[in-house]
Amino acid sequence: MSYVRTFLPWIVFAVVPSAQWQWGALAALVAAVAVTVQQRREGAGFDALIIETGSAAFFAALAGIAFADPHSAAHAYSAALSSAVLALVAAVSLLIRRPFTLGIAKRTTPREVWGLRPFIRANTVITGVWTATFALTAGALALLAHAGQGHSTAATAVQAAGFALPMLFTSRYTASLRAATTAG
């Protein structure tokens, strides 16, 4: 559930019809701000809101561009830009040694394991998979946009896979780590 909430702005943007991209960007911005405010009220620190704050910044910029020029060339590449920004935010979280999944994982993990190397390593691996998937998704979407298929069924499938595959990996990887810990 945490990942769905974290990526809600991106889901909102993806489901708004392409012809209304400026409204999709604005709705995504509202969703990003709402999720961030809700999470802060629930006690989440900014280390748990890396994607959310990055989402708000991106959608604020995109909404500005989209309303200033609804026919901007950015429109055709908006899905690719979205995934590229996610890849960048996730990569920066790795570079500063604050994998974005760490804050999410802390919500469901006992405090006593937060500083342990295996916990941090697991989140580094998970964030690395998300980062790579976002980057690959951005590349595939850019190619589709360049071919004039940026808002096609194929692009939608690529976007869906760009979220579903790392979610599946995260679920299976964490389950295998729990099983190994229980068995050991």
From TrEMBL:
Q: Which residues cross the membrane?
A: 20-37, 49-68, 74-96, 125-145, 151-169
Transmembrane helix found in the keyword field: yes
Q: Which domain of life is it from?
A: Bacteria
Alphabetic keyword roster: Membrane, Transmembrane, Transmembrane helix
Q: What is this protein called?
A: Integral membrane protein
Q: Which organism is it from?
A: Streptomyces polychromogenes
